[in-house]
Amino acid sequence: MSLLVVGTTALDSIKTPRAENPRLLGGSASHAAVAASYFTTPHLVGAVGDDFPRKYINLYRRHGLDLAGLERLAGQTFHWSGEYELNMNRRRTLDTVLGVIENFSPTLPPAYTRLPYVLLANIAPDLQSHVLDQMRRPKFVVADTMDLWLNIARSALLKLLPRLDCLVLNDTEAAQLVEEENVIAALPRIHRLGPKYVIVKKGEHGSILSGPKGLFIAPAYPLVKVVDPTGAGDSFVGGLMGHLASQTGSPENNLRAAILQGSVIASYCCEGFGLKKTDRLKTADLSRRLRELTRMVKW
Ligand code: AMP
Fold first, then answer.
1. What's the half-sphere exposure (Cβ side, CA atoms, 13 Å) at 90?
2. Minimal CA–CA distance to 266: which of 32, 75, 105?
3. Which runs of consecutive H residues, i.e. helices, occur in 93-198?
4. pLDDT per residue over 91-111, tens digit each?
5. What's the 47 CA to ligand 1 centre distance in angstroms?
6. Span from the CA of 230 to the centroid of ligand 1 (angstroms)
7. CATH number for the domain formed by residue range(s) 3-297
8. CA distance 240 to 274
9. Per-residue pLDDT tens for 108-130?
């Protein structure tokens, strides 16, 4: 079974206290699809401008992504720049240039419309809905979002939420969405907006899944050194959906394992700038960290 991924295919300029890297390959869909590619074949939907380097297309190809849904349009590629503080949990967006995604309204290749797993990675909620409108009875739909969309497209996001099986967002976004700082108190309020499952990411402190069977608390893989956490959230949800799409049986039964797989791949993402580390993993790297993580929480 396989997976549709829509989101940003971007150029990222990233500043950390130790280094600065302009115009790296980034974007929610790039991080998510590359992470998912360790488990399944991701079918990408996105748009790049005429400034998008060929070497990044080659990277997508190396990971076996289906690029039939990736459009090259005249104009600038989505560009995000951000700066991290010494405490890498804190970052500031310096600039977001929507470029070609501002008017992007894709018509999916016919084969994509029958894919069972759908990942609406972080991008404008109207565009997420537009893609979902074209899907025929998907099995499991997950969406991610970000503060920018909560600020400028809140009503579009609220319209999307009842159509999801699962919403993934970080703790500050959860607080912003329902105006409740306590994550545990925020969860039932988010469910009331539509999604049966909600996953709240808490950076280095792991994540919480909330669903009909109650809560599941998942750790993050503990790292000694974080080089660049950009894309960790996207890698998390990409790994999670890639794992779900590779399994038989109901997504409900596989969700906890999928979260741990997502945590493992997100940890690798943090160890290099952009996609540097996630580009070069072996399945043995993933299984080793998964074993270690499992051992750390067993009691
Ligand atoms: P994360 O660190 O998981 O929040 O994801 C960061 C990635 O999201 C970067 O590679 C950016 O290109 C991309 N990004 C930043 N802002 C947005 C946005 N408003 N919508 C979609 N993608 C974004």
1. 4
2. 32
3. 125-133, 147-152, 154-160, 171-178, 183-192
4. 999 999 999 999 999 999 999
5. 15
6. 8
7. 3.40.1190.20
8. 19
9. 999 999 999 999 999 999 999 99
Locate the domains of the chain by residue range.
Answer: 3-297
Q: Does residue 1 carry a pLDDT above 90?
A: no
Q: For the chain, give the number of residues.
A: 299
| Longest Cα–Cα distance in the chain | 56
Neighbours of 86 (CB within 10 A): 8
Q: Is the pLDDT assigned to residue 268 strictly greater than 80?
A: yes
CA of 144 to the centre of ligand 1 (A): 10
DSSP 204-268: GG-EEEEETTEEEEEPPPP-S--S--TTHHHHHHHHHHHHHHH--S-HHHHHHHHHHHHHHHHHH
Closest CA to 209 of 246, 245, 174: 174
Ligand 1 pocket check: which of 146, 147, 176, 267 to mutate, most ligand atoms within 8 Å of Cβ?
146
Residue 153 in tokens? 């497209």
Query: Using the 8-state DSSP alphabet, how is residue 179 labeled?
Result: T
Spatial contact of 16 and 229, defined as CB atoms under 8 Å apart: no
Quick one: which of 296, 291, 290, 297 has its CA closest to 266?
290
